[in-house]
Amino acid sequence: MSLDTVRLDRRTLLAGAATAAATLPLVARATSVPPGLNALATEKGMRIGSAFAWSPPGADAGSFANPAYAALLQRDCGLLVPENQLKWQATRPAPDRFDFTHVDAMLGWAEAHRMAMRGHTLLWHKTEYFPRWLVGYDFGATAASAAERLLTTHIETVCKRYAGRIHSYDVVNETVDEKTGELRETSLSRAFGGTVPMLDHAFHAARAAAPQAQLVYNDYMSWEPGNAAHRDGVLRLLEGFRKRGVPVDALGVQSHIEPAGDAPAGLLAARQEKPWRAFLDAVTGMGYDLLITEFDVADQHLPTDITLRDRQVADYAGAYLDVMFSYPQLRDLLFWGMCDRYSWLKGFKPRKDGSTPRVAPYDSGFRPKPLRDTVAAKLIGAATRR
Ligand code: XIL
């Protein structure tokens, strides 16, 4: 190693290990600073990313405006996704009004730091996540055309605003009922004249408005027992898209995975792997690409002891990623947040012992955990994507 490299490296180390790992992965690797996850992924033709938020400067939030959180994004990510800010609830305060202030700021930050940003989501087809005005919306005498206009306007407004800047959209999110495998119905789909024509229309409208973008169907069917009906429903939906020539490029596998107990990860994985591979084989067999869009590991059923819990989270994630990374159609992995401190699971799946869920690659003090090491190891072991 040349003297210059050593000097440069010391300087960047003083400026912060996070920046060093993000901007100088090769130099960093020659020393003891571990390379960023996205640097490891890049070598395999893959990308690592995360959800992030908007907040005022300095707020204690999982936001680009929080320097401690921004440092994690810069260290490990090449790809970002707004956690909530691009949803209808945030961008569409009224049927005839849009607000993109936060998304604009987020995308501006991502671009300034040379990161791509995905769009989540053009239609979260679940009543509880509709903006309030849409839940009992009166579509009037010509309901079908009013519903079509409302949806088309939404998709066109978002896609055209970010043309050439957002290259991948979760066009439709979570339209399959997890219990029955049937498609959900909402005020919007009823007015439209059915869920299937509405979903088809959403993808066609997205293709027309963003011809270069990757169009994704995103859902939380998973590999755990109890997911069979959900998986079957998603398969039927994807088959239907293909039969009808609907432009869908990929399945977003959210990957909010959850060990059912503290049995060894290998044992849990062995039980779950077969039906899960059959599902992924069927999806990829139809020509769909795969993405991990919202990765985290719920720890509700794991022990209180932190060392033990972190190990089990990491091992369970490792077994899952062994399967996922074996599919060359999978290039992108996005965490649903980089650190426990801001994870949605604190509220959504609180622990009985009252302790903070440890579900993300960094803990609440921004320290890396075994989960991060495991993802790094799996990236190093992954086959290169062409
Ligand atoms: C979640 C956010 O993380 C929360 O902050 C919000 O209150 C609800 O939505 N599947 C999805 C994401 O597609 O949009 C959800 O995000 C998590 C589950």
General description of the model:
With 386 residues, the chain is an alpha/beta fold. The protein has a single domain, classed as TIM Barrel. Strands 1-2-3-4-5-6-8-9 form an 8-stranded parallel barrel, surrounded by 4 helices. The N terminus is likely disordered. The structure holds (3S,4R)-3-hydroxy-2-oxopiperidin-4-yl beta-D-xylopyranoside. (3S,4R)-3-hydroxy-2-oxopiperidin-4-yl beta-D-xylopyranoside binds next to loops.
The coarse silhouette is globular
Q: Any ligands, ions or cofactors bound here, and which?
A: (3S,4R)-3-hydroxy-2-oxopiperidin-4-yl beta-D-xylopyranoside
Strand content: 5-15%
> How does the major sheet shape up?
8 strands, parallel, barrel
CATH class: Alpha Beta
The CATH homologous superfamily is termed Glycosidases
- Figure out the total of helices: 16
User: Which residues form runs of ≥5 with pLDDT under 50?
Assistant: 1-29
H/E series, N to C? HHHHEHEHHEHHEHHEHEEHEHEHH
Oligomeric assembly:
single chain
Output the strand order for the largest sheet: 1-2-3-4-5-6-8-9
Summarize this structure briefly.
With 386 residues, the chain is of the alpha/beta class.
Task: Describe the SSE topology.
Blueprint: H1 3-15, H2 17-23, H3 25-30, H4 37-42, E1 47-52, H5 67-76, E2 79-82, H6 88-91, H7 101-112, E3 116-124, H8 132-135, H9 143-161, E4 166-173, H10 187-192, H11 195-209, E5 214-219, H12 228-243, E6 250-253, E7 256-257, H13 265-285, E8 289-297, H14 306-325, E9 330-335, H15 345-348, H16 370-381
This protein binds (3S,4R)-3-hydroxy-2-oxopiperidin-4-yl beta-D-xylopyranoside.
